Amino acid sequence: MAAFFTPWLAGVTVRAAVPDDAEALAELFWRVRRENAATIPMVVHPRETVLPFVASVLETSEVWVATVDEEVVGFAAVGPDGDLDHLYVARPHTGAGLGVLLLARARQRHPEGLALWVFASNTGAVRFYERHGFVVVGGTDGDNEEGAPDLRMRWTPATAAATPPTP
To answer: What angle do CA 44, 117, 151 make, to 5 degrees?
Structure first.
């Protein structure tokens, strides 16, 4: 799939990830989790396991990267089960529309719908997904590696049409 350029976000490109992106994506994943530890529990595995983990995501998932002037500043991954498993944007670029672009790419590739898990403490992400038509369909009290409560959210064209946009 070819990259596309978004004129209202000068210098931004969203493209399919390639194996050579693994190091940049691993660093971004680790940095975003570390910088947002107040709302996203820190990864429970050692730092040196992140690169092999990201490499496996690249092998098994559809992954797109957002770049600004060729620097990787965000990525999204849809796993083989159709779940949006990852959507991360570097802090200096949050709120600039990159998450929207990455989510749009995932929706374009999966028009039948997407589901995801999000930490309940990550209220900014929950609001983001709700603004984009996702609805909470379940959750756990911490049935994950981090032991943190999470929410199951789902988007389908039908839920998007029934969910009024919020500012």
So the answer is: 105
